[in-house]
From TrEMBL:
Keywords assigned: Lectin
Molecular function per GO: carbohydrate binding
GO terms under cellular component: plasma membrane
InterPro entries according to UniProt: C-type_lectin-like, C-type_lectin-like/link_sf, C-type_lectin/matrix_domain, CTDL_fold, NKR-like_CTLD
The keyword Zinc-finger appears for this protein: no
Coiled-coil ranges per UniProt: none
Protein name per the record: C-type lectin domain-containing protein
Amino acid sequence: MPTGEQHPKCLPQLEAQPFCATPRVLQHVLGSSALDYTHVCFNATSNLQGKRICYYFSKTQCDWNSSREQCQRLGASLATVDTEEELEFVQRYQGPKDHWIGLHRAEGDKHWTWADGRTFTNWSVPGTGPCVYLSSMGISSTFCHDDKFWVCSRADSFVLWRNGTNPH
């Protein structure tokens, strides 16, 4: 697929829908195509400095780049998973399907980078591809053009702001 062309299964259907409403799992059916997504928020413990992260699990499959674009349309990024605690949390809600996350590397590069630009060095990533997905067994890498489900993440303060409450 040419760069910049929208993946046909990833057309935006997300206007005016909340990213995350509560710290429990919610199901939404969006638009006439009946795309549905699961929203869940992670209340971090003190070792994560009290941050609260919301995750958005797709029910459609896209390649890595289209998945990243879908997350950006939601005001988020493909999920970042910085700790084992976060990894376990996301795995609990993802179900048995593989989901793209925001970790990738340039061709020929040995260093992993998150979609938000941060370098990842927390643990090794098995596989031979440049894009990373989350499975029930952990993280692995494969080719970016493969279609997989996807998971986005962002700070919950956005939701508070959207509901009319300034988080600051």
